[in-house]
Amino acid sequence: MSPPRMDNVYTVVGAVVKGFVDSLRGALIIFTLDESINEQKRSPARHDIASLRRVSENPLVKSDRQQPKKEKKILKRTLQCCGLNGGIFWLSILLFEWGLLPLVNYLILTILGQKTNIGQTVSSIVESSLSFVFSTMWVLPLLLLSKVVNSLWFQDIADSVYRHSRGRPTVLSSVGKLIADAMFSVLVQFFFLIQTMLISYFPVAPLGYIFYLVHTCLLFSLYSFEYKMYNMGWELHKRLNFIEANWPYFIGFGLPLSVLTSLTSSYIISGCIFSILFPFFIISANEAEPLVNLSSSHLRLFSPVIALSNALFHQTVRPLVEPKGKRTR
């Protein structure tokens, strides 16, 4: 990638700032979005002239169209994400690590003596055993459950917001394309996560973190905008090309979530923070209008993982999902 021309620096910085501001919009409109959706649902009933006329002529006659029931789906789903990931998952980890383990350690050392080798040994064994049991019996099952439940809630939020602002989603032309696109997207995102972790070990300390931050910004922007782009009927290659071509805006958009999730070294806690905040970014992405064509260069960070995914996908997955005689590549 060639660096942006100097006369475009202010434009690029402006796009980064615009993306950053747009990413915060979901937190501002989420409390009024459900009411706006309910108002949109009520509007056809208000304009049913024939029904209103019959009711006005005879008050005993009820309208044949019922008012839609008020719903708070988006806010409800967001609060559920906060409750599951913050109130149950994250809180349970904090209580275990900051409450139960110190208490058990204190009791053991009090009984056996704080300065004895036996007390230190028993305390270490009990702490390791409790941590293992807690991780296998609680953290791992809850982590898997939260991944499934979160994905359903995220999709529900994204579909509700999209229908409200843009209408009915556009689906891909065939089931085979839909399956292939979904599986290829998983491969690309998985390999990009590996690429992100590897780039974080860049030997020059400040550059390593900056490269890592840029990768996560683009990845979180892809996560946020993928629901909207998918509902628009965009295939994966178009989604990735759009993000790479307009990288200044998407670096700014993904920056808040990237910084907040990098504040902890724990993958589990970082995942909790992501799951709590992600619904707001889904809403922000749906409402955003990205600034495009501001840079003459593409930030082709996805190209290595696309090439790797293509090689693996064509050899293993594609023959299973594509009928014989229908291959175009």
Look at the structure and give the mean pLDDT.
81
- Overall spatial form: globular
What assembly state would you assign to the polypeptide chains in this entry? single chain
Q: In angstroms, what is the radius of gyration? A: 25 Å
The helix content is: over 70%
CA(first)-CA(last) distance: 28 Å
Low-confidence stretches: 1-7, 45-55, 59-65, 324-329
Pfam families: EI24
Protein name: P53 induced protein
Subcellular location: Membrane
Transmembrane segments: 87-112, 132-154, 175-203, 209-227, 248-281
Features:
mainly alpha, globular, 329 residues, single chain, 2 domains
Layout of strands and helices, then pairs:
Elements: H1 9-23, H2 25-46, H3 49-57, H4 73-112, H5 117-166, H6 175-199, H7 205-231, H8 236-245, H9 247-261, H10 267-287, H11 303-321
Helix pairs in contact: 1-9, 2-10, 4-5, 4-10, 5-10, 6-7, 6-11, 7-8, 7-9, 7-10
Brief summary:
Keywords: Membrane, Transmembrane, Transmembrane helix. The protein is mainly α.
Structure description:
Belongs to the EI24 family. InterPro entries: CysZ/EI24 (IPR059112). This is P53 induced protein. It holds the Pfam family EI24. It is a multi-pass membrane protein. The protein is mainly alpha-helical. It has two domains: 14-43 and 169-324, no CATH class; 85-144. The protein contains eleven helices and no strands. Helix 4 runs antiparallel to helix 5 and helix 7 (205-231) packs across helix 9. It is globular, with a radius of gyration of 25 Å. The model is unreliable at 1-7, 45-55, 59-65 and 324-329 (pLDDT under 50).
